[in-house]
Every structure is written in C-alpha cells, then in structure tokens.
C-alpha cells in the first residue's frame, strides 16, 4: 500500500493525529522508564542472599533485669544465659540447628565496618581495603544459615569466643565472603592471610571463604559492598540476643511455635512478642516491601497509561471510521477487499504509533536523564526502549483492530446511498 | 457483456417481503450504451448495485463478461469490481482527503499495478477528461462538473469492460451535465459498454437503447400500460 496518499489524508486530520501521537510518545516515555524501574526492583528482590532460606527463622528476645554488659562479670552472666537458651532451642525436636547471630541478611540491622590488609589503617576505598558487614556467630552457623563454604574451613568450637556488646577484643580467625576475598586478594589466595578489622592492630586470619552472604542492609547505600560480609566466631553479649534457627524440613511452623514456651521455661524474665519469632520469608517480604510496592505501582501506572492510550486509539479510529463510512464504501466499490480496508487502518495506526514512538524514544531518554540526575536511577538500557516501542506498536495494532474490522465490514453498496 | 435472467432481489423483514426486482431479465451487448429509466422506487438503483456487484441478489442468474457471479465470494466480487467495472456515481464519490491524482489512483492501487503504469494510466485518463493540469488539486477546489470528470477518469483509468453510471448528471447544472454526457458519448464511441441509470427521459434519449423498469421488472414500452401511466405522471411532474 502506498504511504503518500495515506500521509496526505492524515495531514487533513492534524489535530487528532498529533494528539494521539503525543499520547503514544508520553506513554512510551513513562512505560519504558517504569518497566526499567520494575525490572530493577524485581532483580533486587530476587537476588539470592546466600542463605538457604527455607525452614530458617530468627528469634529476637530481650531479658528483663539482665546484668549490664559493661562489666566482665555481667558479660559472663549474659553469655551463660545465652548458652542456656541455645541448649534449650537445640534440644527442640523440630529444630535442626541453632546459631547465635547479631543480624541476618535483609534484616536492616547492621554492624558495618571496614577491613584492611594493613594494621591501624584508616578506611579507604583503595585496593587492600573493603567495607564489610560483620556477622557474630558460632560454629553452627554454616548448617543453620545454609551458607556454602568454597575455600578453607568452617569455625570449630575452639574458635568461638564471646564479648560484650561494646568490647572490641582481637578476633584471631574470620571467614569472609568470596566477593570480599576477591576484592582483598584478587589472586584468589585469601585463606590463611591476615586482615585487620576497623583499624585494629591485631590480625585476624581468614580461615574460610563462603560463596555468598548478603549484608543486612538493603538500601542503595550498601550497593557497593552488598556481598562483603565477614563472619566472626563470637557470641555477642548484651541484654538481648538473636538466634538463627533452622527447623527440620516441614516443621518450620511447629519449631516457631515451640520457641516462646521453651525460652520462657528457661527464663521467664524476658520479652518475646509476636514479632520476636520471624520466618526468613517474612524478613524478606518486609525488607522488599517498598520495592514490591514500587514495582506494583509502576505496573499499575503502565497499565492505566496503556489502557488510556488504547482507549484513545479505539475512540479516534472509531470516530474516523464513522466519519469515513461513505469513503470506505467507495473504496470497497472500487475494488478494495475487506482485508484491504483492515490493512489501511492498521497501516495508518502504525504510521501514527511509529511517529509517536520516535518522539517517545527521545522523551524516554530525557525522562531517564532527569531521573538519573535527581533520583540516582541507572541509565535506561536500549532493550527497554525497544521493548517499549514494540509494546506501543502492538498496543496500537490491538486497539485499532476492532474499529478497523468494523470498517472492513462496511458494504460496498454504501457508495450509492444518498449522503 | 451483462446478462440477467429471471433475477430477483427481495428485502425481507420479520413481517414483510418486498421485491425490489422480480423476474428481471436484461441482456446488454458489448459496446452498447444502454439507459435504464423508470420512476422512483422502480428498482433502477437496485439493478445498478446488483449489476455492479455492490449487492447480492436473491434468485436467478447473472453473467458478467461470461462469468456467473452468483456464487462468488466477497474477494472475487471485489476483484471483478476492480478489474471489469468502472463506476460513475451521482454524488461523484471522490475522496476529499486525496488530490485528483490520488483519487484516480485508488482502484489501480487495489489492482496491485506497478507505479509507472499507474502513473501513465492516471495521466492518460485525466488527459481524456481534460483535467490533466489539475492533478494536484483537491476535490473541494473543483467545480461539480470537474469533480464528475475526475470520477469518470477514475472509472476509465482501469480500462473496465463495463461502465456503470448512476444518475451521472443528477447533481450538475445543465451546462455541466451536457459536458459530462458528451464525454460519456465520446467514451462510448471509443467502444466502451455503458449502462446508465437515469430518471431523465431527455438524457435517456441520448443512449443507444432504453430499458424501462417498473415495479422491479423490465417492461415493453409499446404494450405495457404501466409505462404510459408512469410516463404521463413524469411528464406532469416536469411540466
């Protein structure tokens, strides 16, 4: 079909054509960026923590009237209380393993520091330094968390010590994540090497490397070191404690229900509320609630915009079909087949949607630049723009189909009827 | 060229059947210029729409250029309309959004003709109707007579076997009507088969042969009293 007469005809309906093309352009610009945001959020939400998340839950509790962790005596008593809890929890029939821990990935409660290859070093981003999140735990953490050891060994009971919450004793051995090991030791020989935590002068020897373990924080401020975790074989002592618990397969609910009565039997002077025992699935859901919400919001905005645009195309095409009813009859009388009329309206829509898409690509890039400047968004990759273009073109074709089909059913005899 | 035998066209509603054409017989030979006349509501336009394959018929047979058209599907009917028939409508039926050139090109485009041939045919047809210099004008920029000439050019460009004209001068003043009629006569002299529907006896008189329709049937003027009654009424109306 020749485009020139069609373009000439469209020029006679400038207002409608320009409005619908602009609507398509705006839709494309917003939809491209919204789909990009959705993609980013989904990829954030779906990134693995490094944990075996099924059957894992976290217990957070606080003792009432507990000794102060400011004195050595108090720290010793707190550690004894923590060990009593651990024994009780480990004895539960529905529990596979338990490890004391200060935090978990996605919990957004972090102990962030820095590790250097040199003693007494101030933090810098240069080679030989790395920001990290610390996990204080014990020898049962590997089986409890389900992390995968890829080099060296795991902690043994002899490695495990305890410390007051505000103390900073030497930590002779640590385990680090592969991401961190690669950053500090690009040659891949981290095991057996010494590192210095938080400007300490005491070395910590890396005894093992785990494949992956995400830091607790989920904000964009940890993007540069989201996989830099350091595991320290130490029970932290304070007036509260956290325990990571792995339930036996299929017994997560039973294990979670058994926790509170068990701990109360050990020591009733503590606070355990509804929020104290949380499955990791709940922790994940809470951590990414904003991301999921944003993705849904963007999805709804896309749907509304696409629907409004589709409605606009249907409305305008229907109007044009009505307006050109006789003209369509004349075309049919002159030999156009039904499919020719259908294709005419489809091609016309493709021209309008294509023009809108061209403008829309520019608008999408401009919107992306603005978002990059003001909201730290990444550059919009080309595939998202192409997907957006394809989406509006397909949308246009779908929207135009019904009125175009109605047009194709205008009988040729219409040409002979009085105006 | 055009042969209808015992053809009927019935419009049915839930309560009534109306015969627009009944036991309709006509045979137009190649190269003839036939005027179809009759009073309003007699079935002239129905005949024309069926002859032009714009509508289907209810019963009987219709052969167009040797092809029995009653069982053809919509696509085949479109192809015949496009290749064998040229239409000239009372209301010109030019597409207002297209210029003269593009209007004449419409049926040729549906034929899938190559651009150089299309252009040649369009310019030849416009030359013939005396409007080659106006090929860039839009219909609204032309007089009624010129618009009808463009419509004739559009009908001629495809070299149809049959020209069907529906009251071709009905929307024109006398002078313009005369011009259009002379053009039709010239086209006929060049060998075209023309069937023209008109209610105007003077116009019909210019044709080679007249066919009269009354109550959906072709009637023999010499014996059918209905013609005399209709003719008398028409004369009074004009007089």
Give an overview of the whole structure:
- The complex is a heterodimer of chains A (419) and B (239).
- Chain A is α+β, with helices and mostly antiparallel strands and 419 residues long.
- Chain A is built from eleven helices and 14 strands.
- Chain A has a six-stranded mixed beta barrel.
- With 239 residues, chain B is of the alpha/beta class.
- Helix content of chain B is 39%, strand content 25%.
- Chain B contains eight helices and ten strands.
- Chain B has a six-stranded mixed sheet, sandwiched between helices.
- In chain B, helix 3 packs parallel to helix 5, helix 4 packs across helix 5 and helix 5 runs parallel beside helix 6.
Strand order of the largest sheet of chain A: 3-4-10-7-9-8
Major sheet description of chain A: 6 strands, mixed, barrel
Instruction: Please provide the ordered H/E string of secondary-structure elements of chain B.
Output: EEEHEEHEHHHEHEHEEH
Helix fraction bin of chain A: 40-55%
Given as residue ranges, the uncertain stretches of chain B (5+ residues, pLDDT < 50) are 222-228
Number of strands of chain B: 10
């Amino acid at each position: 079909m020749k485009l020139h007469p069609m373009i000439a005809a469209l020029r006679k309906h400038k207002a409608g054509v320009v409005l619908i093309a602009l609507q398509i352009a705006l839709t494309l610009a917003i939809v491209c960026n919204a789909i990009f945001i959705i993609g980013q959020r989904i990829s954030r939400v779906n990134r693995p923590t490094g944990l075996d998340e099924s059957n894992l839950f976290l217990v957070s509790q606080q003792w009432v009237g507990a000794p102060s962790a400011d004195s050595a005596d108090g720290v010793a008593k707190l550690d004894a209380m923590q060990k009593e809890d651990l024994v009780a929890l480990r004895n539960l029939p529905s529990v596979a393993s338990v490890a004391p821990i200060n935090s978990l990935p996605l919990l957004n409660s972090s102990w962030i520091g820095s590790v250097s290859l040199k003693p007494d070093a101030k933090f810098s981003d240069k080679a030989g330094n790395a920001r990290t999140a610390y996990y204080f735990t014990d020898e049962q953490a590997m089986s409890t968390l389900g992390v995968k050891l890829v080099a060296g060994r795991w902690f043994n009971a002899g490695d495990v010590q305890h410390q007051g919450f505000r103390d900073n004793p030497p930590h002779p051995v640590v385990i680090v994540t592969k991401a961190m090991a690669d950053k500090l030791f690009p040659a891949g020989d981290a095991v057996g090497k010494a590192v210095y935590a938080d400007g300490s002068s005491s070395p910590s020897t890396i005894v093992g490397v785990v494949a992956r373990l995400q830091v607790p924080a989920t904000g964009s401020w940890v993007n540069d070191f989201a996989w830099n975790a350091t595991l320290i074989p130490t029970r932290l002592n304070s007036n509260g404690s956290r325990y990571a618990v792995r339930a036996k397969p299929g017994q997560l609910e039973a294990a979670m229900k058994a926790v509170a009565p068990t701990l109360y039997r050990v020591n009733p002077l503590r606070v355990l509320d509804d929020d104290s025992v949380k499955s990791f699935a709940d922790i994940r859901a809470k951590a990414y609630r904003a991301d999921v919400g944003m993705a849904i919001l963007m999805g709804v905005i896309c749907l509304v915009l696409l629907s409004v645009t589709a409605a606009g195309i249907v409305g305008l095409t229907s109007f044009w079909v009505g307006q050109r009813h006789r003209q369509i009859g004349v075309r049919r009388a002159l030999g156009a087949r039904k499919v020719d009329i259908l294709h005419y309206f489809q091609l016309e829509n493709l021209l309008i949607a294509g023009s809108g898409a061209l403008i829309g690509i520019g608008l999408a890039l401009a919107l992306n630049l603005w978002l990059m400047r003001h909201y730290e968004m990444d550059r919009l990759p080309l595939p998202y723009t192409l997907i957006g273009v394809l989406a509006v073109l397909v949308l246009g074709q779908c929207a135009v189909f019904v009125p175009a089909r109605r047009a194709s059913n205008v009988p040729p005899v219409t040409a002979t009827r009085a105006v | 060229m055009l042969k209808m035998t015992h053809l009927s066209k019935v419009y049915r509603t839930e309560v009534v059947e109306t015969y627009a054409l009944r036991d309709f017989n006509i045979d137009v030979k190649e190269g003839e210029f036939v005027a179809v006349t009759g009073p309003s509501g007699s079935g002239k336009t129905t005949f024309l729409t069926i002859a032009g394959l714009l509508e289907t018929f209810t019963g009987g047979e219709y052969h167009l250029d040797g092809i029995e058209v009653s069982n053809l599907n919509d696509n085949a009917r479109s192809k015949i309309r496009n290749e064998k028939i040229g239409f000239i409508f009372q209301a010109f039926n030019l597409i207002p959004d297209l210029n003269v050139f593009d209007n004449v090109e419409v049926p040729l485009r549906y034929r899938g003709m190559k651009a150089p041939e299309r252009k040649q045919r369009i310019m030849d047809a416009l030359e013939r109707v005396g409007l080659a210099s106006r090929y860039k004008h839009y219909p609204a920029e032309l007089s009624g007579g010129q618009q009808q000439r463009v419509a004739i050019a559009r009908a001629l460009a495809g070299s149809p076997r049959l020209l069907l004209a529906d009251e071709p001068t009905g929307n024109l003043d006398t002078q313009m009507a005369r011009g259009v009629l002379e053009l039709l006569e010239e086209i006929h002299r060049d060998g075209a088969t023309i069937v023209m529907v008109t209610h105007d006896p003077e116009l019909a008189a210019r044709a080679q042969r007249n066919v009269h329709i009354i109550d959906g049937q072709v009637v023999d003027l010499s014996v059918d009293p209905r013609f005399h009654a209709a003719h008398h009424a028409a004369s009074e109306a004009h007089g």
